[in-house]
Amino acid sequence: MKIAIIGNGILGLMTARAWLRSGINVEISIIGRQSRPGSATRAAAAMLNSFAELEYDSLSTPLDRFKFDLSRAATAAWPAVFEDICPTGGDVTFGFGTYMLNNSATDSLDDDNFNAVREFAAEFAEPCEDVDPRDIPNYHPDPRYRALRALLLKREGWVNPKQFLDALQAKLATNQRVTFIDTEVSKLDMGGGKIRGAELADGSRLEADAFVLANGANLSRLAGELGLPIQRVFYGIGMSIEMQSAENIHTHCVRTTNRGLACGVYSVPYGPDRTLIGASNYISPIPHDHAHVGSAYTLLKAAMDQINNKFYRANLISVNVGWRPTTSDTYPLIGKTSLENLWIIGGTKRDGFHLSPVICADLVTSMQGKSVDERYAQLAPERSLIRNLTREEAISKTVRHQINAAFQHDFSPARNRMLEQLERNIRTDLESLHDRVGAAEWGIPPELTDMYRYHHIPGTA
Ligand SMILES: Cc1cc2nc3c(=O)[nH]c(=O)nc-3n(C[C@H](O)[C@H](O)[C@H](O)COP(=O)(O)OP(=O)(O)OC[C@H]3O[C@@H](n4cnc5c(N)ncnc54)[C@H](O)[C@@H]3O)c2cc1C
């Protein structure tokens, strides 16, 4: 059996690994430029976070609980993955233990999310303890932004994704059944209810028995031409910054809660004298090779204010920009399409690296015709948009996130009714947007407000 995997990010490579581990005799081609343009994987932290990613309302639906089950299974899976790919550590920097801060850099949304993480950790008996923020190694915030509470999530880790991807690719390449093809797929040739072949950018053509589309935020570029009812995937343009300093060596991941439409600010160990800080998020219908100067300003300032004010004298090594694959309903796309030999894995937004050992293995299991958790059906690539927020929930949540984001971006309201007026204005704007797109019974996910506003996602009006 020949399998073509389109895309060479973490999901493409972990899918190949899962096939090799299945024991079935397959030939695998992985297509993608070695430079990996726009790769989310290479820009990631990559934090292996599960509880640290939770917000106060994260587990309110059965589908969210399913996604969280996958995330917890991934936490359990990572130690064995490291044992397999980089048993001695070698060139791959990774570790476990994430400090979560509750500071006053923005408003009370942080407090609610911090409390929620703590409560969910207790509910699921996750190893976690309260710590005095002053005991966090190399935590030197500006005093005005210091945390008064902190948690240590003991099993939540991180890995340098570039080093890991290299090690994973090197291991896959030692297997004669795996071929890496350094180009892009420019078109999928469909006929007779299946994919007949892939046309490559170098003019050649690749045929296979099964195709896996794992090309990240570019998914709609190929899938869109097939005429299948697959929702649009957007580019969640994110920036992370690599720093070098011998005096600010971070031994653990240090991060805030998720906040204001993004994942907060964090630092992770990235090498013996390297630290990565992240991350920005700007959702766009088109790809951008570079991120905004304003994002770099906010990120550097937040990292110096909230994590380590000595970062000012670290060396700035590089700015990574990657595209988080962000679906029109914010949930991943995993499973078989209505074409008999086309499978999709993608749309994993900001936790795809962490989820990869579990969702890639499950995809391969289902490609073999074996059963997987039946809740995966809800993530089927040709589903209708999942709309599990009510209009009121969505509007209230978006108002909160936008105000929280404003405080993160130096907003300082006048000592009058300015804040209330601003909240009212945002709410009025969102109500009229919901009216315009026909969102009476459902709500627009906060991060996708502008994708609805500018007609990139159709409403129901
Ligand atoms: C700044 C940032 C921080 C993040 N932090 C974390 C984190 O801490 N933890 C976490 O779990 N996740 C994190 N993420 C999210 C995570 O990186 C993604 O969910 C995950 O990497 C998606 O993997 P992928 O393989 O689908 O996509 P990608 O890594 O984008 O890989 C897709 C690959 O396909 C290639 N490709 C595109 N088009 C074609 C084509 N036509 N033919 C062939 N190849 C093609 C691309 O060049 C790319 O190499 C972060 C993302 C960003 C941007």
Quick structural overview:
It holds the Pfam family DAO. With 461 residues, this protein is an alpha+beta fold.
Question: Total strand count, please?
Answer: 19
From the N-terminal CA to the C-terminal CA, the straight-line distance is 46 Å
Order of helices and strands: EHEHEHEHEEHEEEEEHEEEEEHEEEHHHH
Structural class: alpha+beta
Count of spatially separate domains: 3
Q: Regions with pLDDT < 50 over 5+ consecutive residues?
A: none
Average the pLDDT over all residues and give the rounded result: 96
Number of helices, where a helix is a run of at least 4 consecutive DSSP H or I residues: 11
Cofactor: FAD
Domain FAD dependent oxidoreductase: 2-364
Pfam family, one: DAO
Keywords: Flavoprotein, Oxidoreductase
Topology at a glance:
Blueprint: E1 2-6, H1 10-21, E2 27-31, H2 40-43, E3 47-48, H3 62-85, E4 94-102, H4 109-123, E5 128-131, E6 149-159, H5 161-173, E7 178-181, E8 185-191, E9 194-200, E10 205-206, E11 210-213, H6 219-223, E12 233-244, E13 253-256, E14 266-271, E15 274-278, E16 282-284, H7 293-306, E17 315-327, E18 333-336, E19 342-346, H8 352-367, H9 391-408, H10 418-436, H11 449-453
Parallel strand pairs: 1-2, 1-11, 2-7, 4-13, 11-19
Antiparallel strand pairs: 3-6, 4-6, 5-6, 8-9, 9-10, 12-15, 12-16, 12-17, 13-14, 14-15, 18-19
Helix pairs in contact: 1-5, 1-8, 3-8, 9-10
The structure holds flavin-adenine dinucleotide.
Residues 6-12, 31-33, 36-41, 43-47, 184-185, 214-218, 222, 238, 240, 278-279, 322-325, 346, 348-354 line the site of flavin-adenine dinucleotide (FAD).
